[in-house]
Amino acid sequence: MIETQNTTMQNPVDQYDQPPFPEQEQQTPGTESDLTPKADHGETSYKGSGKLSGRKAIITGGDSGIGRAVAIAFAREGADVLISYLNEDEDAKETARYIQEAGRKAVLVPGDISKEEHCKHIIDRAVAELGGLDILVNNAAYQMSHESLQELTSEELDHTFRTNIYAMFYLCKAAEPHFKPGSTVVNTTSVNAYKPSPGLVAYAATKGAIQNFTASLAQLWAEKGIRVNCVAPGPIWTPLIPSTMPTEKVKTFGQDVPLKRAGQPAELAAAYVLLASQDSSYMTGSTVQVTGGTPTI
């Protein structure tokens, strides 16, 4: 059973009670309702303090996992939030409920972000229904594990790059005319940008590309006063894991990092709030690593 955080500082190794995960398998992209044990998104623990008051945010992949944790945190910090997701309607509705309970507006936009026209649609919906756009969180991603390069088809390679890196380009380009000085972009890269997994050849390559895209765009937009940063998660317990990894690897997921456990989505939310808020006003082109101790140097 995973226990939610409390206000007392804890040993990070045993902050969450994590026995081996039960063997489980889901169809891609996976859903929170089928995840065992349930993940912690900060539903009972995250307390806002007005860091994003009045801001308008888009979060791709915001229906579940890291995206849901970020959505809850952003709403409790005072932001209205558009959630972009593929087709996980029930998960998205649950995330919207938390946003609304925080007193903020929630907009749900299903669809495939690998398509440029849909990315433009997401930006247009945010501007029309939220009344503007201040924060873009590029979080959605596709991955699939393979034991052999021969298993990785050209079609899957193309889909992985279109979802993970092309979509960031499409969304940032469409958002740029609506951004003002002080706007922020937060991209989700991965520990795989530093320590690529041999079973995630396509995914790891896109995460390295995201690192470079972030660094380049941060320099390009610096004079505009638009900051671009990214977060590099390590192994985080989300529906992506049982829907893209062999069941035997799911059972021991996260146990090979120095903290000896998988992270919870709630443990990343503060990093996204930091990079989206004025607290990081002198940070652009930066990466915040949340890896459970896996070195990135």
Task: Describe the secondary structure blueprint for this structure.
Layout: E1 56-60, H1 65-76, E2 80-85, H2 89-101, E3 106-110, H3 116-130, E4 135-138, H4 154-175, E5 184-188, H5 201-221, E6 227-233, H6 240-244, H7 247-251, H8 269-276, E7 287-290
Parallel strand pairs: 1-2, 1-4, 2-3, 4-5, 5-6, 6-7
Helix pairs in contact: 1-2, 1-8, 3-4, 4-5
Please describe the structure with a list of short key phrases separated by commas or semicolons:
single chain; 7 strands; globular; 297 residues; alpha/beta; seven-stranded parallel β-sheet; disordered N terminus; Rossmann fold; 8 helices
Structure description:
The chain is α/β, with parallel strands linked by helices. The protein has one domain: NAD(P)-binding Rossmann-like Domain (Rossmann fold). Helices cover 34% and strands 12% of the residues. Helix 5 links the parallel strand 5 and strand 6. Helix 1 runs parallel beside helix 2, helix 3 runs parallel beside helix 4 and helix 4 packs parallel to helix 5. The longest helix is centred in the middle third of the chain and has 22 residues. The protein starts with 55 loop residues before the first strand and ends in a 7-residue tail after the last strand. The relative contact order is 0.17.
Overview in brief:
This protein is α/β, with parallel strands linked by helices. The protein is built from 8 helices and 7 strands, in the order βαβαβαβαβαβαααβ.
